[in-house]
Amino acid sequence: MNSLLLKGIKKSFGPTIALDGVDLDLRQGEVHALIGENGAGKSTLMNVIAGSLQPDEGSMEIQGEPYSPANPLDARTLGIALIHQELSLCPHLSVAENVLMGIESSRLGWLDRDQLVARTNEVLKTFHHADIRPEKRVGDLSVAARQIVEISRAIAARARIILMDEPTSSLQRDDVEHLFSLIRKLSAEGISVIYISHFLEEVRLISDRFTVLRDGRSVATGDIATTSDDELIAKMVGRAQQHLFPVRISSPGEMILNVQNLASPPLLKNASFDLRRGEILGIAGLMGSGRTPLLRTIFGLENPKSGTIAVNKKSLPSGRNTPAMRLIEGLGYLSEDRKGDGLTLNQSIADNVTVTKFDSCSRWGWLDLSAQRKQTEKLVNALKIRTRGVQQEVGALSGGNQQKVIVARLLHQDADVLLLDEPTRGIDIGSKAQVYETIAACAEQNKAVLMVSSYLPELFGMCDRLAVMSRGYLSEVRKIDEWTPESVLQAAIGAADTRG
Hints:
6-stranded mixed sheet, disordered C terminus
């Protein structure tokens, strides 16, 4: 008997058709991969199953019984747990309160905090993450740590069906391995999992079967073991994908950014490097190693305790290291946290794209809406952002299309130095290829790129040089062909051992 059966699911938002007839059957104890491009309808389908959205047409069954949840609590009561791609935690509450929300133990109407902590510790020990403690406020955690809390909440609910929407997008290799081990254990106990990921290597490692969504329709299903990556990509995008990474000829020019002995405790302890025009410099490292604070400090979002940052051989006076000054100097920043730092979700695509360079579409201090629209439309078309129009709110876009809006803003800004923190997080393979081509084109235009990434194939496929961050210390920068994936991981872990 199927654990979950979907037939002809349709869902529209006004004139936009998100789901146009989706069929899916999930077997008991199966890990079923749901794959497709951004905007294909994957997250919408998850929200329908989880009770957050009501389908316009179609039917659902759980173990042969009709299933139509009125709301998320109804779905959770019936054994459905959803791990959102965009985290849905309460930042003002503790880790324990988030993990056990709705299923807390109590005595005479009072919360049993000892039991709350004990049950949370039981779930958290799966990940062995020292920074995540039951009493800690979720808002004080990193994006990656918050994702672990989100996963732990679904595990604590003891669901019969777990929906995982990009659960590893912020996790390091060790945490991914712990998660996969847990998924296999849950599967062996008869729990079914629908797993969404843009990493095909993950899909191949963890799933039994797959369903491909394209333009809101289920276009293919089958066994993952008998389907090649090329076949999966062709089904996702409707065409064969030739090359993921563009062919580049590196020709670095003059130094544009020089960082010496930069420190911003507690996470960034010492980093030195130089960045040249026309090159892509990669920064690898484990979660919490200090990669993000490095970029934030360079851009003026965090204050350095010591060290120097020179742009075009000039250092800003003390106290003037601000984002506004960095924008004037030609620096552009892409945050790993697109919702928290990267975008204003209740404003239009046009406003988000042009916000760092309004003078390109304004006169005498007044915004020229026609010029703004034309400039934004050009970038939306170039990056193939799926939208009803440039006046649409960014918050209504899929996560991957939101990410491309941030890339469009950097292109509009025409920054000389691009500080990119996880630039392809949460976007599909076709969109990744577009972003890679855009980054390569920027380097060819004599711009300099500093790229932080947790995805080693991305670093090896794009970068000219590479350095590794560990426990706040940046390694020596070396040419990319002097590194291997093994040596990168050794540097990330080994430095932690020697510095500890």
